[in-house]
C-alpha cells in the first residue's frame, strides 16, 4: 500500500514551483491557452508565444472574433495549427452559450472542441477547484515509477488505472495545486530517461526507485516509422515580394501560407510548367539547400530552387507577399524556416 503522496509533494511544490505567467493570473482562459500551447512545446519556448497571444487576445470574446489569418499568425512557430482553430471554435461556443466565460463544469469543458480529458481536468481543478484529474505524459511517468508499474502507458486500460490512482491520492480540498505539483515534478525531477531521484520529495515512497527500475519506466511501445515525403519548393521572388500559396482548408497545415511547393521530387521544367499555369514565368537561380521537417506521422525532405519572376496577376489562393507582410500578415509553417531566414 502506497503512503499518501500529497503532503510531501505539495510542500515541495510550494518551495520549488516556477514563476510562470499563467500561474500569476490563473484564470480559466489563461490556463486553457497555456495548456494547449504546452501540449507539444517546452515551457521556456512557449512563454513568449503565450504572452504575445494573451496581449492580443485577452479573453474568449477576442479569440472568437479574431480573423483566421491573424490567429494563425499569432500561433506561428507553435505548429499543430488545428489546435488553435479548435480553440476559436470553442471560444465562439463559450460566447454563445456561457456568456463569454469558460464553464465551471468538467463535462461542459470536455464537450468543447479541442478540449480533451487532460485539458478539461487542468482547467476544472486549477481554475475552479473541482477535484478532476489532469493526467498527461508527465503524470503517467510519475505514477508508473511510483507504483513500479510496467503497464503500457499508451493503452487506454493503463491510463484509466493510473487516472484512478491519481484521484485516490488527490486531496479533495486542493486539487489544482496537487495536479500542478504532479506536472511540475514530472517536468523538473521525474524526467524521462534518468530522473533526479536524489531531489525527489517522493523518493522514500517510490516503489520503482526502491526496485532500481526508475530508469526503465514508463513502458511505451516502439514508435511507428514515419513516412518520408519529398517536397520540391520554388522560392520565387518578384519586385512585389515572395510568391506564396495558401494550403488547402483541410488536412496538414490547413489554411496556412507557403512558398510555391508540391509533393514529389520535381525537376525544374516540371516546376516551371506548374508555375506557368498560374501565370508566373520564372528565371531559375541557385538550388535551395536540402531541408528536413518532422511531423507526427511523416517527414518532409525538402529541396528546390530560387527563382525570380516579373510581377503578374495571380489566381485566388496565391499572393505576392512583401517582406513586411511576410513578417506580420502571412502565417508560414516552420517547415519552410530554412528558406525564409534572411
Secondary structure category:
alpha+beta
Estimated helix fraction: 40-55%
Order of helices and strands: HHHHHHHHHHHHHEEEHEEEEHH
For the biggest sheet, the summary is: 7 strands, mixed
* N-C termini distance: 60 Å
Uncertain spans? none
Binned strand content = 5-15%
Number of strands: 7
Shape: elongated
Number of helices: 16
Describe the structure.
The model has no long low-confidence stretch (mean pLDDT 95). Strands 1, 2, 3, 4, 5, 6 and 7 form a seven-stranded mixed beta sheet that branches. The chain has 342 residues and is of the alpha+beta class. Helix content is 44%, strand content 14%. The radius of gyration is 24 Å and the shape is elongated. The chain has helices at residues 6-16, 21-24, 28-38, 43-56, 60-65, 68-75, 81-97, 106-110, 117-128, 137-146, 156-169, 175-188, 207-210, 268-276, 323-328, 337-340; strands spanning 227-238, 241-246, 257-263, 283-287, 291-294, 298-308, 318-321.
Index terms:
342 residues, elongated, alpha+beta, 14% strand, seven-stranded mixed beta sheet, 16 helices
Describe the secondary structure blueprint for this structure:
Blueprint: H1 6-16, H2 21-24, H3 28-38, H4 43-56, H5 60-65, H6 68-75, H7 81-97, H8 106-110, H9 117-128, H10 137-146, H11 156-169, H12 175-188, H13 207-210, E1 227-238, E2 241-246, E3 257-263, H14 268-276, E4 283-287, E5 291-294, E6 298-308, E7 318-321, H15 323-328, H16 337-340
Parallel strand pairs: 1-6
Antiparallel strand pairs: 1-2, 1-3, 2-3, 2-7, 4-6, 5-6
Helix pairs in contact: 1-12, 3-4, 3-9, 9-12, 10-11, 10-12
